[in-house]
Amino acid sequence: MTDRPALHAYLLGRVEFDALLALQRRLAYDVGGDRDGGAVVVCDHPSGITVGREGSRAHIRPEPEELTARGWPVRWVARGGGVLLHLPGQVACYPVLPLDRLNLTPAAYLVELQLLVIDLLAEYELRGVPDPLAPGVRVNGRRVAHVAAAVRGGVTAFGLVLNVDPDLEPFRAVHCDGDPLPMTSLQRESTARVRVAAVRQRLVEAVAARFGFARVSLFHTHPGLAPRPATHASASATR
Fold this sequence. Notes:
- This protein is α+β, with helices and mostly antiparallel strands.
- The chain has helices at 17-33, 64-70, 99-102, 106-123, 186-189, 196-210; strands at 6-14, 38-44, 48-51, 74-76, 83-86, 90-96, 128-130, 136-139, 142-152, 155-163, 215-219, 232-236.
- It has a single domain (6-236), classed as BirA Bifunctional Protein, domain 2 (2-Layer Sandwich), CATH 3.30.930.10.
- The protein has a nine-stranded mixed sheet, with helices on both faces.
- Helix 4 (106-123) crosses helix 6.
- The longest helix has 18 residues, at 106-123.
- The protein is globular and about 50 Å long.
- The two termini are 17 Å apart.
- Mean pLDDT is 91; it is low at 227-239.
């Protein structure tokens, strides 16, 4: 039925973080005006560091000169969670959803995001567990996903970042979410070859299914990011 709630999914490539912030604000405005709908942005970011409300400069080991040499800008952002190092090979998934329609508190929403990641990991025969120290997911004791959200006017922003197949060595320079243990990735833990494109698509499907969207309208750009109009195709959400 065409009147059932639709999720607008933006499967984008690399998005500068400042552009992502502007896009989230625009989508949150749209969702706030039509609380039966929702959106999700799936993308990745250039290398850099973001610091949330629970973050600390003490969790970033390199000095400013080294950060500049590495090309790692540091941004302090209005979200939960701590320090996060963004690298190629990650997939960021940012749902923009009205929590009142979902009957979720912010705390319950974070739990749902963790369960979403755990279900995805199970598809690769991996056992993910919620991180007991900070929102996120671990596999074999190591963090594989960060979960950090913001809620403004009852509408969510940010979401989760999953290590699909990044270079894990740079994480030694940053204690992501204050965790001194080494990070891991979906590819490191899986015995199968993991395709980033497949993970991106599955995240869209998982968001639609978990939060009750019957239809997905898929876009590969957004007017706020590019001058050409977005193209889309509709698909049914399945559980």
